[in-house]
From TrEMBL:
Name used for this protein in its record: ABC transporter ATP-binding protein
Gene3D superfamilies: P-loop containing nucleotide triphosphate hydrolases (3.40.50.300)
SMART domains named among the record's database cross-references: AAA
Similarity comment: Belongs to the ABC transporter superfamily.
Length: 241
């Protein structure tokens, strides 16, 4: 049984900036993004998430939408357990896989092959299958001999091929996706999209942030609209919304 429950969840980022002194005088909202606030201890912070209440259950395919800085990526990282709430609670049941900027856990000095072993441990893969996993990743990423070279010698698209191939090798109960649909060159994009569709089918709960209405309407059955760190709309959708 997989589920995610958030109760009155808030997340503030403390920020040190040259303009901090003047910002501290006010509670301000500047066009886009979370609210910039201050407290009596004279700390400036960005209120990235405010009083988020959510209950996600099996079958939910949620599209997170909202302007730049609305809090989509922050919410995904809270769901992933990367960020901890400043207030409120989160409860999660089920294994989690993230498709974020695809950089976490990589050592650029190590070869692609050694990085696969690192990531396999990070993602809790069954290490008894490591050799066959590496073969599958080699096949999907089409990196060939580059897998024996340090990752620092890869182009950004090649790094992405490697990381994507590892992160999507196995399905998980909960799948969190942050704007990764445009990854790689056009040939890779077609295969990446098919792979994402496969692991989405097997995941019990999917939450994805995207600015593309087309992607959200083709993959999601719910949308959550965020504004300045708050959930302002949650509704079921079928196709276009
Ligand atoms: N590491 C950080 N330190 C300070 N503030 C941050 C940090 N990360 C995000 N923020 C702030 O939190 C708010 C939410 O940012 P977030 O990245 O979650 O927005 P988003 O909806 O994903 O935006 P976009 O569509 O531009 O990717 C913004 O006001 C942003 O400035």
């Amino acid at each position: 049984m997989s589920k995610i429950t958030l109760n009155n969840l808030c997340l503030d980022f403390p920020v040190v900036s040259e303009t901090g002194a003047s910002l501290r005088k006010h509670l301000v909202r500047i066009g886009t993004g979370g609210i910039i606030a201050s407290d009596h201890a004279k700390t400036t912070y960005v209120k990235a998430l405010t009083d988020v209440n959510l209950s996600l259950v099996e079958g939910d395919r949620v599209g997170l939408i909202g302007h730049n800085g609305a809090g989509k990526s922050t919410l995904l990282r809270v769901l992933a357990g990367i960020y901890h709430p400043s207030a409120g609670t989160i409860r999660r049941e089920g294994s989690i896989r993230t498709l974020f900027e695809l950089g976490v856990g990589v050592d650029h000095e190590l070869s692609g092959r050694k990085n696969i072993s690192r990531l396999a441990r990070l993602y809790n893969f069954n290490l008894a299958n490591l050799d066959s996993d590496i073969n599958k990743i080699e096949e999907f990423s089409e990196l060939g001999g580059y897998l024996d070279l340090p990752v620092r010698s890869y182009s950004s698209g090649m790094q992405l091929r490697l990381l994507f191939a590892v992160a999507t090798l196995y399905p998980s109960d909960i799948l969190l996706i942050d704007e990764v649909f445009g990854v790689g060159d056009s040939g890779f994009q077609v295969r990446a999209k098919a792979r994402i569709e496969d692991i989405m089918r097997e995941a019990k709960i999917v939450v994805m942030a995207s600015h593309s209405k087309e992607i959200i309407s083709s993959f999601c059955n719910k949308i959550i609209r965020m504004e300045a760190g708050r959930v302002v709309e949650l509704k079921n959708i079928k196709g276009d919304f």
